Amino acid sequence: NPSLACGTCALCQRGQPIHCLDMRFYGSAMRFPHVQGGFRETLVCTEAQAVPTGQDTPADLAAFAEPLAVCLHAVRRAGKIAGQRVLITGCGPIGALTILAAHHAGAREIIVTDIASKPLQLALRIGADAVINTKDAPDALSPYTAHKGYADIAFEASGTGKALADAIACVRPGGRIIQIGMGGEVPVPLNLMASKELELAGTFRFYEEFEWAVDLLARRAVDVAPLLSAAIPFRNARAAFDLASDRTQAMKVQLVFE
User: Fold this and answer.
1) Contact 90, 157 (CB under 8 A)
2) What are the backbone angles phi and psi of residue 15, rounded to the nearest 5°?
3) Pairing between β-strand 171-179 and β-strand 199-202 as defined by DSSP bridges
4) Residue 244 and residue 228 in contact, taking contact as beta carbons nearer than 8 Å
5) pTM over 0.85
6) Tell me: the pLDDT tens digits for 23-63?
7) 81 contacts 75 by C-beta, under 8 angstroms
8) Distance (Å, rounded) from C-alpha 199 to C-alpha 178?
9) In Å, what is the CA distance from 199 to each residue of 53, 112, 192, 232?
C-alpha cells in the first residue's frame, strides 16, 4: 500500500487518515523532501503497508490494486450502487476501473462517455452497456438529459468542465455526482445543480479500500486483464511512458522489474 498516514495528526485522530496532514505516499510531492516512488528493483516498506496477495496472484494483476482502490473508494462515496443507472464520464484507466467497480457493486446500467474511440471499445468489453463519443457525436447525450436526467449516479473521471456539465445534465433530480478527475478550476452550472437538488461529492485516493482491491484481484472477482496494454522492461521506461501517453494505442502500461 503506497499510503502511510502518520496516525497522530488531528485528522488521523478524527478517523480520517486518508487526509493525514503528514501523509507519506509513494511518488507524492505533497511533502518536502518528496517521497520517492516505486520504480525500483527493491523497495522496503513498513509491515502495515504490506498486503498479502497470495502466491497465485500474478504481479501484473496485483499491480492494479492501487488504481482499483481509488475506484472502490469512489464507488463507496456514491452510496448505494446496486440497481442504479450509472454514468461515467472519461474512460482512461480510472474511468475504466470505475466501470469494473460499479459493475461489481451491482449497477443496473452503465453508460460511458469519452472523446476517443479506443477506450470506449474497451469499455464495452468490460461491462459498459452503452458508450458515447462526445467529440464525434456531441448530441448523442440528448436522450439521457431528457425529462431532467436519466442517470441516478455519475462518476466524473476526466477532470474537465465539459464532462462535469454533461454529468449534471444527465443525472436525475436528487442524484449524486462523484468527482474523481482533477483538472483545476472548471465552471459549474449552478442553476442546474440547485434546481435539480444534485449532490456533488469529491473523492480522493483510498485507505482500507486498498486491502479490498488486493482481495478482489486475488479472488479474480474483478477482471482487470483487458486493461493491460503492455508490460515493458524498466530499462525501456521512456518507450513505456511514450506508449502510455498515446490513448489511441494504450490503456494501462506497466514497467517490469526483473
Assistant:
1) yes
2) 85, 20
3) parallel
4) no
5) yes
6) 999 999 888 889 999 888 888 999 999 999 988 999 999 99
7) yes
8) 8
9) 36, 20, 11, 42
